[in-house]
Amino acid sequence: MIRVFIVFLFSINLLLGLEEDKVSSAALVKEKIEVQELKKQLNIFYNKKEKEYQLRKKELESILATIEKEKQEIKDLRDNNISLLKDIKGEVESKTSKIYNKMKPKIAAGIFNQMIIDGKIEDVFDIILRLKEKNVTLLMKYLSPKSASLITQMLKDYKVNNN
Q: Are 112 and 143 in contact (CB under 8 A)?
């Protein structure tokens, strides 16, 4: 009888142990399924975010390309405007030279002396560069000694820089 009782207790323990193993195995299987489901959800979320990222990246690249294109157009427009301004300035200087070429040297020298006194020696120099050499020679005769020496020095420096 004691043997039967011991066998009975042993059987119950064994059954309870197996039952616990089944419960823990079932819990592990359930957790594994939950982890796999979570992994699927994370993959779906990641793929969705990756698509959004690629879309935003394409938008940004498109915007950047547009900006670069507009930047180049602005640069071209600026260069064109600078060229036009130089042409206009050259035309004005050319007309100014024609006027001074036709003027009497004594009158032109008086104007140049006053311009030099007013601090516009660069303007005078630009005009003299465009005058005929014969007129410059006559003009220098009527300039004040100080003005003539300044212009002579500028002409000398100009000749050295251009050679």
A: yes
Q: How many residues belong to the chain?
A: 163
Residue type present at position 72: Q
- Mind listing the pLDDT tens digit for each residue in 37-63? 988 998 999 999 999 999 999 999 999
Instruction: Provide the residue ranges of all domains of the chain, joining segments of one domain with +.
Output: 1-88, 103-163
Angle, CA 88 vertex, CA 86 and CA 94 arms, to 5°? 100
Give me the helix-helix angle, 133-142 and 105-117, nearest 10°: 70
HSE-CB for 74 with a 13 A CA cutoff = 6
pTM score of the predicted model: 0.45
Q: How many Å separate Cα 26 from the centre of its chain?
A: 64
Phi first, then psi, for residue 54 (nearest 5°) are -65, -40
Residue 68 to residue 110: CA distance in whole angstroms? 53
